[in-house]
From TrEMBL:
Domain of life: Bacteria
Protein name: Sigma 54-interacting transcriptional regulator
Keyword Transcription regulation: yes
Gene3D superfamilies: 1.10.8.60, Homeodomain-like, P-loop containing nucleotide triphosphate hydrolases, PAS domain
PANTHER family recorded: TRANSCRIPTIONAL REGULATORY PROTEIN
Domain PAC: 80-132
SUPFAM superfamilies reported for this sequence: P-loop containing nucleoside triphosphate hydrolases, PYP-like sensor domain (PAS domain)
PAS domain sequence ranges: 13-64
SMART domains from the UniProt entry: AAA (SM00382), PAS (SM00091)
Keywords: Activator, ATP-binding, DNA-binding, Nucleotide-binding, Transcription, Transcription regulation
CDD domains, sorted: AAA (cd00009), PAS (cd00130)
Residue ranges constituting the Sigma-54 factor interaction domain according to the UniProt record: 157-386
Length: 473
């Protein structure tokens, strides 16, 4: 240590105290009130990449101007007369946590500022490494989740078609967010299954998944069913009261199907719940708080119902945060072969027999319109399973008659020289022939095919048919 530095520090430190500071891993320095740097320990030299003989005796302003550090703590301590801690970038490229502490003389003035420095560089590197590991862990979790959902999709949800691929892409993206989802689509398109997939892909997967078909509950009972009620709230109420589905779904997911049937007078209460996660049971005065994710579904056009005044616009906006429209089976014909294989496999496992579909039956299904969508396909194949008995092959004869009659071969729609009038006449005949086998009265036939009784009388005469199966043609 230079003689001038030793001379400056000797009045303030005993030899043994200097040895103590020299042994410390943290950097230590001392400035006077000028402020001028008086002394630094060896750790301070190493942390800052400086030499004592080059810096001791210089003012803080000089050291700052030479780029030894980006900001100083000494002036702050002198001004505040209180301990101050700062983060400092130093010449060596390290990041230091610097603590400055004032030392007062007998007059109460700051005579010295003693600083200690701790290297944050390694801590920052460790923090960055931990953050990277956390990011990697999170990414792995996301990938595992995506694999799980894709595995679920392969086993339960067929998505070969572009339309269903787009649906599943949205489902994967929205699953782990607690945002409200509105599923729309015709009956039988699989809205409840998609709602379940969203729940299974979320952080709530281990909690309850409850569903309510709003169209199946009378309006008078809807409030009690959803929000619960206090004991004695109304005639016939349980004495101990009853919790509603919202409270039962706490920390889980609630799926409201046919949300378009939700009573108009209760929609404001549902809106309040969505905004606050709070609700008041019937007959109670206390607000209950829950944590529930809501997924809603409808087979109607809610926007049209808003225009007609049958659905609140503010509730529609609140439900429609992430809309997901499910395509009809007609819009995803590419999925039909895989859906058929999946349903047949499921039926084979359920009934303990292995069956397969013959080409003619497959051709009929390919030409069928499926107004009931995927649910109807499942029912059609189960019908064929039951009707096939002990046979191993499902043929066209095992399919429901409606499928056989409506899945008219292409030649009957204008091919092979058939005119449009002839094709229409052929369809009339097939419909009437089926109805005559099932009914003995013209009024019943009219009800089934959706026309008036006089029209049925005219068509029966045209085609030479009689109710009750006595077919003349």
């Amino acid at each position: 240590m230079p003689s001038h530095a030793k001379h400056a520090v000797t009045p303030f430190f005993e030899a043994q105290m200097e040895a103590v500071f020299e042994a410390m891993a943290d950097g230590v320095w001392v400035c006077d009130a000028t402020p001028k740097l008086l002394w630094i320990n060896s750790a301070c030299e190493e942390l800052n990449d400086i030499r004592r003989e080059e810096v001791c005796g210089k003012t803080v302003e000089e050291l700052l101007g030479q780029g030894n550090f980006d900001t100083d703590v000494t002036h702050r301590v002198l001004n505040s007369k209180k301990p101050v801690a700062i983060i400092q970038k130093v010449k060596s490229g390290r990041t230091l946590l610097v603590n400055g502490v004032p030392v007062f003389d007998e007059k109460g003035d700051v005579s010295l500022v003693v600083g200690s420095e701790r290297d944050l560089t390694e801590l920052n590197l460790l923090r960055i490494e931990l953050e990277e590991k956390e990011k990697l862990h999170s990414r792995m979790q996301s990938e595992l989740l995506a694999m799980k959902l894709r595995d679920l999709k392969m086993k339960e949800i067929v998505a070969v078609s572009e339309a269903m691929e787009q649906v599943m892409d949205t489902v994967f993206r929205v699953a782990d967010f607690d945002t409200t989802v509105l599923l729309s689509g015709a009956s039988g398109t699989g809205k409840s299954m998609i709602a379940r997939v969203i729940h299974e892909g979320s952080s709530r997967r281990d909690q309850a998944f409850l569903s309510l078909n709003c169209g199946a509950i009378p309006s008078s009972l809807m409030e009690a069913e959803l929000f619960g009620y206090k004991g004695g709230a109304f005639t016939g109420a349980l004495a101990e009261g009853k919790i509603g589905l919202i409270q039962a779904a706490h920390n889980g997911t609630l799926f409201l199907d046919e949300i378009d049937a939700f009573p108009l007078e209760m929609q404001v209460k549902l809106l309040t719940f969505l905004d606050t996660q709070g609700f008041i049971p019937v007959g109670d005065t206390r607000v209950k708080q829950v944590n529930v994710r809501l997924i809603a579904a409808t087979n109607k056009n809610l926007k049209e119902k808003v225009v007609a005044g049958e659905f609140r616009e503010d509730l529609w906006f609140r439900l429609n945060v992430v809309p997901v429209r499910l395509p009809t089976l007609g819009e995803r014909r590419q999925d039909l072969p895989n859906l058929i294989r999946q349903f047949i496999q499921s039926l084979s496992e359920r009934y303990g027999v292995r069956k397969q579909l013959d080409p003619e039956a497959m051709a009929l299904l390919n030409r069928y319109a499926f107004p009931g969508n995927v649910r109807e396909l499942d029912n059609i194949l189960e019908h064929a399973f039951v009707m096939s008995g002990t046979e191993d092959v499902l043929t066209a004869l095992h399919l429901p008659e409606a499928v056989r009659l409506q899945a008219v071969p292409p030649r009957q729609f204008g091919y092979d020289g058939m005119t449009l009038d002839a094709a229409v006449s052929e369809i009339e005949y097939l419909f009437l022939k089926r109805a005559c086998k099932q009914h003995r009265r013209q009024v019943d036939i009219a009800a089934e095919i959706g026309v008036s009784q006089p029209t049925v009388a005219r068509l029966l005469k045209k085609h030479g048919l009689r109710p009750g199966g006595n077919i003349q043609k």
